[in-house]
Amino acid sequence: MSKPEEIQKKKYEPFQNPKGVHDILPADQEFYTYIKKVVRHRARQAGFRRITTPIFEFAEVFNRSIGAGSDIVSKEMYVFEDKKGRSLALKPESTAPVVRSYIQNNMNQWPQPVLLFYIEPHFRYDRPQKGRYRQFWQFGFEIIGESDPALDAQLIQLAIKIHGDLGIADFFSLQLNTIGTPESRKKYAGILQDYYVGKERSLCEDCKVRLGINPLRLLDCKAEDCQILAQMAPQMRDYLDKESLEFHEELKGYLDEIEIPYVENQRLVRGLDYYSKTVFEFWDKEEGAQNAVGGGGRYDGLVELMGGQPTPAVGYAAGIERIIANMKREKIRVPSKDELHVFVAQLGNEAKKKCLNLIEDMRESGIKTMGALGKGSINIQLRIADKFKVPYSVIIGITEVREGVAIIRDMKKGVQETVKMDKVVPKLVKLIGEKNLDRYTPGELLYS
Ligand code: HAM
């Protein structure tokens, strides 16, 4: 046995987060905060109200809506059993949960259509790569209870407005299609299956499986051979119902009216089963479908499929990480509210005590303040202040305590002045400027 002094302390390996998920560090939080602000603002302007559904649902909510044959349900869902053996899933998207909630909360009794928006994390066991994560954030809009192509047009307009606010609208092209009613689509799916008879060997492994379950997905497969075959396949439009085609023409008329350019893409089918009629995606103009920033469409049959009354609906969701990646590539900066105004440096115990009250007063006045923590000399503390890039420092040493004053130092100019303790806050407010203060008055915001 080794002697106690020879027992080595075990060195632990530091933890890493699981593949495909990441921390949102303070610098990136500023992007999230800003995007959320834009979304909330534009949503409110258009009459949308926010909804938050749980992070997990019964897995069946997604199986039935997105479809058991879809990639999301068959490969990408985080499914687990709870202690009673019920099958639950982390939500891979929010349309199905929102519809579940619409039915459960009798929202059909609310004025129709019901306009809801959400900003939420979602989970998909995707293969992690650029723009593809296992936890990602989406903002989304759902309009439930009305069927009118003008709503589809308005939703697309809202999405573009938000992309514009974030400085990324120009990088994406609107891809538009109609996939008709489920009945007409079923007819077309049969025609498509017939077309692929004898061609199966040229298909990718995924498409070989998809052919039996969801042949429409073969149309938007990215594999080269699959694409060649898809190009020669019978056209969906030739088999769709008249009503869907008319609806589509009307929608295009509205888009023309509001001058929104679109690319008619007859092979756009979307990867979720619940769509009918309108489908659309915003494709990266350079990378195509690979890094679509968002997508949506009409889902007129979903409320009924989930156990409600037949109720038409349309929605859109965008990926926040992909938006941020585009903003960063273009060096688009967002306003930061994190920057500190003042660092308080002090020397001696008495000064520290005085500082605690002063710091509290400064913060209450909206001055973003840090300090009263160092044990080092004033100079060392001022060097820290420099690192935090504060415009002003307040310095209180033994002399200042005795005389009831404080020194305010302009860090950029390197000049300083001594002011009476009770004048420190008003003086700083003046220097920083009313409009730059971070005032928080929760009491005033409440009303009864
Ligand atoms: P989706 O096309 O599956 O649609 O997702 C919308 C957007 O979420 C994508 O365009 C992409 O920007 C982002 N996204 C999806 N998966 C990932 C991932 N693994 N990593 C990063 N970003 C991702 C839906 O989810 C539908 N619920 C949209 C909708 C709303 N349809 C009607 N209403």
Explain what the structure shows.
By secondary structure, the chain is of the alpha+beta class. The chain folds into 2 domains: 26-181 and 241-329, BirA Bifunctional Protein, domain 2; 342-445, Anticodon-binding domain (Rossmann fold), CATH 3.40.50.800. Helices cover 38% and strands 19% of the residues. The chain has an 8-stranded mixed β-sheet with strand order 1-5-6-11-10-9-7-8, with helices on both faces. Helix 1 (26-45) runs antiparallel to helix 5 (149-165) and helix 5 packs across helix 9. The longest helix is centred in the first third of the chain and has 20 residues, at 26-45. It is elongated, with a radius of gyration of 29 Å. The model has no long low-confidence stretch (mean pLDDT 94).
CATH class of the largest domain: Alpha Beta
Rg, Cα atoms, Å:
29 Å
The spatial strand order of the largest sheet comes to 1-5-6-11-10-9-7-8
Residue windows where pLDDT falls under 50 for at least 5 positions: none
- Strand fraction: 15-25%
Q: Give a count of the beta strands, DSSP E runs of length 2 or more.
A: 16
Shape estimate: elongated
Molecules bound to protein: histidyl-adenosine monophosphate
N/C terminus separation: 73 Å
* CATH topology annotation of the largest domain: BirA Bifunctional Protein, domain 2
**Classification by helices and strands:** alpha+beta
State the fourth-level CATH superfamily of the largest domain: Bira Bifunctional Protein, Domain 2
Number of domains: 2
Mean pLDDT: 94
Largest sheet: 8 strands, mixed
Report helical residue fraction: 25-40%
